[in-house]
Amino acid sequence: MALGVGCAAPPGKARDNKTGSWRVFRPVFDPETCNRCGMCALVCPEGCVHENEEGMFEPDLDYCKGCGLCEEVCPKKSIRMEKEEK
Amino acid sequence: MAEEKQDVELFSAGHRACGGCGPALAARLLLKATGKNVIVVASTGCMEVFSTPYPETAWEVPWIHSLFENAAAVASGIEASLKKQGRSEKIVCICGDGATFDIGVLCISGAFERGHDITYICYDNEAYMNTGIQRSGATPYGASTTTSPTGTCAPGGNPLPKKDMPAILAAHGAPYVATASIAYPNDFVKKVERAINTPGPCYIQVHTPCCTGWGFESRDTIAISKLAINTGLWVNYEIVNGVVEKAKKVRRVPVEEYLEKQKRFRHLFRPARQDAEIAKIQAIADANAEKFGIDIKLRKPAE
Ligand SMILES: Cc1ncc(C[n+]2csc(CCOP(=O)(O)OP(=O)(O)O)c2C)c(N)n1
Ligand code: SF4
Ligand code: SF4
Ligand code: SF4
Ligand SMILES: [Mg+2]
C-alpha cells in the first residue's frame, strides 16, 4: 500500500489570504517626488510594492499590512502613512 | 538573466508574519538569490508557521518541513539523493536561531562533518519567537525574554553571551561562512548567491529583527538592524576557507542608541539606569570592533 506522508499545498496558495484587512495605516505614494530608487519594493516584507506601467511604485492594498517600513526607508519622503477609514 | 531573476517574486504575499517582520523580508530576499532551482528545508518556528499554515504556502519553490531539530539531516538526505540522480537543484536550509544554535546543533554538525553540498541559513531573531520569546543561545547578553526575565534576582536579563555559531561552523572546515543583515538586502542576496555556488556545506547567519519579540514599532525593523551594525553589536563579515574577510567597517555609535529603542532592554534604563550593565554591553561591542577591525579610523586631513 502506498503511504501518503505529510501534507502538500499548491505553490503560492498563501495569496488566498488577503492580509490587507490587517492594516490600520495605509501608505500613500507621491509620484511627484519619487526618484524610482526601488527601496520601498526591496524592503517590503510582503513583496507587495510594484512598479506600474508608468514606472511608478505602488503598494498592492490587498496584501499591504501597513507596517510603515517603506515610509521609513524612502529617501525622498515620498510615502506618507494615513489612518485607514473603516 | 540575473536582473530577470531578481524581479520574480517567489515568496508570495498573503503569509501571516507580523507586519514589519524581519524574517519575512529575509525569506523574500533568499528566494531572489536562489531563483527557482532550489529545494528549501525549514525547521519549526515563526517562518515555517507564518509561511505555511495548511493548506496555504507562500513558497513557490519546493519546500519541506520535518521537525524543529533536523533540517540539516533532511537536507543531507536530499543532497545525497540528488547527487546520485545527477540533479542540479541547490539545497538551502532556512532555520531559526533556536533551531540552529540549540536544538539542531547535532544534525548541523553531522551535515558539515560529512561535507554535504548544502547552504544552511540561520535567520537570527535572537530568541524562540514562535513559542513566545524564550531565550536561545543566540539571545544577546542583557536581553529580557520570558525565560531570562528581569527582576530583583536578575536585574540584567539574559546572563549569558551570544554563542559564536559562525566560528563553530568555520571550525568544521566549511569553505564559506558569512554573517549578513536585512539592513543591507543586496549584501545578503550576494552572500546567498556565493554560498549556493560554493561546493560543500556553507553557513550564513542573517540578522532579522523581530518587532514583536524585541519590542519596537514595525516600521523600525530596518533602522534597528542598521543600529545593531553601527554600534558594533552585529558585525557583517565572511570567513572564506577559515580566514575572516571583508568585515564591514563603521563609524561606531554608543550601544545605548540601539538598546534604548527596544523593550527587551528597557530594564537597563528604567526605573533606574543600570550603568554597569550598559558598560558590559558596550564592552561586547568594543571587543567585536577590536576582533574584526571594523572601526573607521579618522584620517588626518591632508595639508
Ligand atoms: C522538539 C521540539 N521542541 C519544541 C518545539 C516547540 N517549538 C516550536 S517553534 C519553537 C521555537 C523556534 O525558535 P527559533 O528556531 O528561534 O525560530 P523563531 O520562532 O524564533 O523564528 C519551539 C520551541 C517543537 N516544535 N519541537
Ligand atoms: S506599509 Fe509595509 S506592507 Fe505596506 S507596502 Fe509599505 S512596507 Fe509593504
Ligand atoms: S523608496 Fe521612495 S523614492 Fe524610492 S522608489 Fe519608493 S517611493 Fe520612490
Ligand atoms: S514574532 Fe517576530 S519573527 Fe515571528 S512573525 Fe512576528 S515579527 Fe516575525
Ligand atoms: Mg528565533
CATH class of the domain at 38-86 in chain A: Alpha Beta
Q: What is the gyration radius of chain B calculated from CA atoms?
A: 19 Å
CATH H level, superfamily name of chain B? Thiamin diphosphate (ThDP)-binding fold, Pyr/PP domains
Per CATH, the architecture of the domain at 38-86 in chain A is 2-Layer Sandwich
* N-to-C order of helices and strands of chain B: HHEHEHEHHEHEHEHHEEHH
Strand content of chain A: 15-25%
Q: Note the overall shape of chain B.
A: globular
Count of runs of 4 or more consecutive helical residues of chain B: 12
Total number of domains of chain B: 1
Low-pLDDT residue intervals, each spanning 5 or more residues of chain A: none
Q: Which strand order spans the largest sheet of chain A, edge to edge or round the barrel? A: 1-4
The CATH class of chain B: Alpha Beta
Give helix % range of chain B: 25-40%
Mean pLDDT of chain B: 95
Task: Walk me through the structure.
The complex is a heterodimer of chains A (86) and B (303). By secondary structure, chain A is an alpha+beta fold. Chain A has a domain at 38-86: 2-Layer Sandwich (Alpha-Beta Plaits), CATH 3.30.70.20. Chain A has helices at residues 39-43, 69-73; strands at 25-29, 49-51, 57-59, 79-83. The radius of gyration of chain A is 17 Å and the shape is elongated. The model of chain A has no long low-confidence stretch (mean pLDDT 95). The radius of gyration of chain B is 19 Å and the shape is globular. Chain B is an alpha/beta fold and 303 residues long. Chain B has an eight-stranded mixed β-sheet with strand order 2-1-3-4-6-5-7-8, with helices on both faces. The longest helix of chain B has 18 residues, at 275-292. Chain B has a single domain, classed as 3-Layer(aba) Sandwich (Rossmann fold). Helix content of chain B is 37%, strand content 13%. Chain B has helices at 2-7, 22-34, 46-51, 71-85, 97-103, 105-114, 165-170, 185-196, 211-214, 221-231, 256-259, 275-292, and strands at residues 38-42, 63-65, 90-96, 119-124, 176-181, 202-207, 238-240, 243-245. In chain B, helix 4 (71-85) packs parallel to helix 6 (105-114). The A-B interface holds A 7, 9-19, 22, 42-48, 60, 62-63, 65-69, 71-73, 81 and B 9, 11-17, 19-22, 24-25, 28, 51-52, 54-61, 182, 185-186, 217-223. Bound molecules: thiamine diphosphate, iron/sulfur cluster (SF4) (3 copies) and magnesium ion. One iron/sulfur cluster is lined by residues 27, 44, 46, 48-49, 59, 64-70 of chain A. The site of magnesium ion has 7 residues of chain B, from helix 5.
